Amino acid sequence: MWSFFARDPVKDFNYEILPENQDKSGIWTLHRGKRKTTGEPVSIFLYEVAQGTEEQTQLAKAAFKRMKTLRHPNILSYVDGLETDKSLYLVTEPVTPLAAHLKARSESGGSGELEISWGLHQTVKALSFLVNDCHLLHNNLGTWAIFVDRAGEWKLGGLDHVTSDQGEPTSLPPAKVVNPDLEKYDPPESPNSGGEKWSGDVWRLGCLIWEVFNGPLPRASSLRSLGKIPKQLVPHYCELVGANPKARPNPARFLQNCRSSGGFLSNSFVESNLFLEQIQIKEPAEKQQFFQDLSENLDSFPEDFCKHKVLPQLLTAFEFGIAGAVVLTPLFKVGKYLSAEEYQQKIIPVIVKMFSSTDRAMRIRLLQQMEQFIQYLNEAAVNSQIFPHVVHGFTDTNPAIREQTVKSMLLLAPKLNETNLNQELMRHFARLQSRDDQGPIRCNTTVCLGKIAPYLNAGLRQRVLTSAFSRATKDPFPASRAAGVLGFAATHHYYSVTECAGRILPTLCPLTVDPDKNVRDQCWLKHFLVMMLKVFSSCFIIVLPEKDVTASGQAGGSAATWAGWAVTGVSSLTSKLIRNAPAGSEGATAGNASVGRTSSGAIKKQSSDWSSSGWDADDSWSNEKDVDGQGQSSPADEGWGNDWDDDGALAESFTPTPRSTTSSTAFIPKSDSSGQDGLRMASDYNWDSAGGKGTTSDLFSNVSQRANPASAMVREKKVENKAELAKKKREERRKELEAKRAERKAAKGPLKLGARKLD
């Protein structure tokens, strides 16, 4: 029973000391600790009564009492404490001694003047609070009495020798009695010389400034050497260590002098910190301007300050709607300093909440800066919490939001599930490509589809890409047509031989005479012509390897080429050329682009069959109406349709010419009534070559030589070999027939007079 009352109170203490390195701070030993229940990190100052003298024990108890009663943002924060007969435990916020902090900074590149300026500002402000508000004297100011928290802010501690300035008697011994090494920091005058009450603390402040810039002070006479003290601070430093104690300034006046224009404490870092301390009482317009300017200065601010001081203020500002969308840019900049785990805990919940905002400025900034945080988003959050809000941007009335929404799909597509990617997203892309009145958005939709093609379902991909790119090649906007051509080229490995021959090549060939030079330049049929020539040059149709056609929806080896075709082909689809296109450019282009259209420039009806892929009939491009000059169709035109008739011919874009006995052509583009396209009937062309009759094989040989000279020569030799083989077969057949006739004549014998010759 008595053992219960004799229980050690240290075991019931809510904090425990961690077995790590310890630092000596005056009469105290500084340990790292944590709260037993939550694991929250703290610092524990420990004083062992048995190891100290009576004077030191008296100082420790006095400091313990002062820490409980003094509260100020720039004074070390008291959390908890325990006083026993054997020891004193003083629990504070987690801090590091200034000397150790400066040493670590010097090893990693040195502390910047911005960080030191704010630290000195905090120290002088805490000293001014003691002298002017509390009427106390510190009497122990130095690097050993300054501590630095996680945000890099300096805190004043070492309250062992604090006394009243009212002349009250004190039994506390001076610092030099406890530690003789501190005698060099004492002012040169005697205690009763008649100087100002703060003259001793101000002198020690000068010693602190000298040590911050030059290292440990070897002797008092070294204060005359300025060393590395900045020029802006030299005049004010000299006032602090002046020989006349009455001329030494009050800490408040010293702070005011250094904050004047051009002073050492007058910079963006100090100004930002002061604003953050008073942000709760600032006007909304001031907060808006501050967060807008903050992003420009964050690159020069210390990393710890950004993580532990700026970030909490940014999160608070967003939570209470203080600044709106302007907090996003500095928020993402600060997020670069966080680890993956910290980012998930602090930034991601805020981002997910931001996507549900109806503020257009917030939404467009999120879309523009998605690249900075997309790697931290998991697939579950993207599909359930982010994508449902992002898709609203496809139907927004603001073109800028629609455009950024399309671009964001490049980053979201790898994380989307089967339903969102192959059904929901494709439905929105189909509607944008067929109904959006902005040419650049239709163009960007085509480019985005080509880039995310590796992620599409293999069973759906070929039909979607073929129909979408075919649709793009008929767009009134030239850049969209060029994007469609380059989309075919970039995804050529996803099409079968039958698809290339039956749909893609007939779609691309008319674009070789497109009125826009950029479209003509991009209409490069090399990939598809080589594939067809391989089949045509064989004695029988071979089955080419088509492994990518049915490959699963993952990024393939061609992903590295996506960045090339959009930039080189359409010159970065959001460039000034597209953005600053004249209002009537699309209509003018549509009027001239007669290739692949009827004479009125309209796109005719198309048919589609998506029942096999599970799409509704309402999502197809069937019942398509004429497209006006803006490239806008009826509201019912949605889905990736089939641009071809059931018999495989182009839907009314080309007119079949009846085959005559003198012409070898089958399909020739219909000539415009104005004759501007310069197309003629096949019979009007001169099919002779080099002054003689050219065969059809010769004509194809010339074409193949232009496309690929090496393969053309091989094919020409094969054609010649076939011709010689056929000639030999005909000659052998002729000889066989002649031999048979001779045998029949010999079997019948000589003809009789008057008999009729039958053969």
TrEMBL record:
Occurrences of domain Protein kinase (ranges): 16-311
Biased composition (Basic and acidic residues): 714-726, 733-746
Gene3D superfamilies: Leucine-rich Repeat Variant (1.25.10.10), Phosphorylase Kinase, domain 1 (3.30.200.20), Transferase(Phosphotransferase) domain 1 (1.10.510.10)
HEAT repeat segments: 386-424
Polar residues bias: start-end ranges: 591-601, 695-708
UniProt superkingdom: Eukaryota
Region (Disordered): 162-196, 582-759
Molecular function per GO: ATP binding; protein kinase activity
Matches recorded under Pfam families: Pkinase
Low complexity bias (residue ranges): 653-665
UniProt KW keywords: Coiled coil, Repeat
Matches recorded under SUPFAM superfamilies: ARM repeat, Protein kinase-like (PK-like)
Cross-referenced PANTHER family: N-TERMINAL KINASE-LIKE PROTEIN, SCY1-RELATED S/T PROTEIN KINASE-LIKE
Family, similarity comment: Belongs to the protein kinase superfamily.
Function statement: Regulates COPI-mediated retrograde protein traffic at the interface between the Golgi apparatus and the endoplasmic reticulum. Involved in the maintenance of the Golgi apparatus morphology.
Name under which the protein is recorded: N-terminal kinase-like protein
